[in-house]
Amino acid sequence: MIKEDIHHEKLEKALYLLFSKFNKKGARFNVAEFLSNRLLLIEVIERGIPYSIFNRILEAGPFTNVFWSDALDLSMKSLQRYSASERRFDPIHSEKILELAEVIVYGRTVFDTYEKFKLWLETPNFALGNSRPMDLLKSSYGKELVLTELGRIEHGILA
Question: Which of 51, 64, 124, 152 could bond to 157 as cystine, CB 3.0-4.6 Å?
Answer without folding.
Answer: 152
